[in-house]
Design brief:
With 140 residues, this protein is an alpha+beta fold. 14% of the residues lie in helices and 21% in strands.
């Protein structure tokens, strides 16, 4: 059996706790439904855009931790099935500053028609749901 080498961590400083809400992107953001200010479904979150250094870039001491700059959504079903990653220009960005709540669903403080991300929901509502019997009105 191989012996594990002990690493001396006594000289390391504990990192400062960042101010504000700390989110686990995979747990709290990814694949969550986004609702607008009226509760209308907009989209689901496929990825997160972070501010800060580019991947592979050296991070100097004292640099602020990355912050969420946008939620990303787009046509990613094919890449989820077959693997890979879609090009970044295929994503639609929802600026983080319009997000008003993080919970079971994410809520944005604007109407869905003001976001580019809601075009899929609007298209489905008009071209698919509206053709289903009873699909043109809200249930009572």
């Amino acid at each position: 059996m191989a012996r594990q080498r002990r690493i001396d961590t006594s000289h390391l400083r504990t990192p400062p706790r960042p101010a504000g809400l700390v989110l686990d992107a995979q747990l709290h953001l990814l694949d969550r439904q986004v609702l607008d200010v009226d509760g209308v479904p907009v989209t689901t979150v496929d990825d997160v855009e972070l501010s800060g250094p580019e991947p592979g870039e050296a991070i100097s001491e004292g640099t602020d931790p990355p912050h969420i700059s946008a939620l990303l959504t787009g046509a990613v079903l094919g890449t989820r099935i077959f693997g890979g990653r879609p090009p970044s220009d295929r994503f639609i960005r929802i600026p983080w500053d319009v997000v008003s709540g993080v919970g079971i669903v994410l809520t944005v403080g604007v109407r869905s028609d003001s976001l580019d991300a809601s075009w899929v929901e609007r298209w489905l509502r008009t071209h698919v749901i509206a053709h289903i019997p009873g699909g043109r009105h809200d249930p009572e």
